[in-house]
Structures are given as structure tokens and as C-alpha cells.
């Protein structure tokens, strides 16, 4: 059964790229365009992994990550940050991989393989 990845990014072009790329590599995808919507999809879809942009309207990546870690049943869901925004936010655990935009597909697949093993 395909692993499900929740893509959270406010840029529709990035979301579409990640959906196509991940589906071409045998992942199921679900998408959200901000952290608030991402938390809702996290609850309803229960993905195996989340890709997370940091700089988004309404609720950014840092607030999404904090909300994820407060949810006892989902707090261990792996996260890969995909962002064009500066250094690693202090709220992120050091084990969370960060990929800068533009996205390196091989690096992303490597992190997914490691985190979902």
C-alpha cells in the first residue's frame, strides 16, 4: 500500500509539483495550503509523513509544527521541511530534515525513504 504524504504549502505551483513528483514515485498525496488547513487534514487523513513550508498565511509552519507535536496520537508523524525561508526555525526538532527551494527531488526521496523505513 502506498504511503500517504500531506503536502502543506501556500504556493499552488509547489503543491502541484510535489503532488506530481510524489505520485510518480508511488506515494499517495493530500494537500493543504496553510498550517490551519494542514492540521485539519492531519486529523482527517492521518498521513504517514508531512512536507511543510514554513512561511504561509493564516498559520505558518512553526505553528503547524507546534500543533502537531501537541496531538498525542499524531505527534510522531515525520516531517520534512521544504522552504525557501532562511535558517532552521528554533521550534523544529534537530532531527527534522530541511530542504531548501528549489526542491532537490533526489534529496527529498532520500529523506522520505529514511523517515518511512
UniProtKB/TrEMBL annotation:
This is Response regulator receiver protein. Keywords: Phosphoprotein. Gene3D superfamilies: 3.40.50.2300. Pfam families: Response_reg (PF00072). PANTHER family: RESPONSE REGULATORY DOMAIN-CONTAINING PROTEIN, STRESS RESPONSE REGULATOR PROTEIN 1. InterPro entries: Bact_response_regulator, CheY-like_superfamily, Sig_transdc_resp-reg_receiver. The modification 4-aspartylphosphate is found at residue 53. One of its GO terms (biological process) is phosphorelay signal transduction system. It comes from the Bacteria. Residues 4-116 form the Response regulatory domain. It comes from Pseudodesulfovibrio profundus.
Amino acid at each position: 500500500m502506498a504511503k500517504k504524504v500531506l503536502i502543506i504549502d501556500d504556493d499552488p505551483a509547489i503543491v502541484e509539483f510535489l503532488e506530481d513528483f510524489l505520485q510518480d514515485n508511488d506515494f499517495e498525496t493530500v494537500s493543504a495550503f496553510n498550517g490551519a488547513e494542514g492540521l485539519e487534514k492531519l486529523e482527517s487523513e492521518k498521513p504517514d509523513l508531512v512536507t511543510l513550508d514554513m512561511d504561509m498565511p493564516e498559520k505558518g509552519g512553526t505553528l503547524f509544527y507546534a500543533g502537531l507535536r501537541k496531538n498525542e496520537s499524531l505527534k510522531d508523524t515525520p516531517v520534512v521541511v521544504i522552504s525557501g525561508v532562511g535558517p532552521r526555525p528554533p521550534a523544529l526538532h534537530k532531527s527534522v530534515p530541511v530542504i531548501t527551494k528549489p526542491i532537490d527531488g533526489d534529496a527529498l526521496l532520500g529523506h522520505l525513504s529514511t523517515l518511512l523505513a
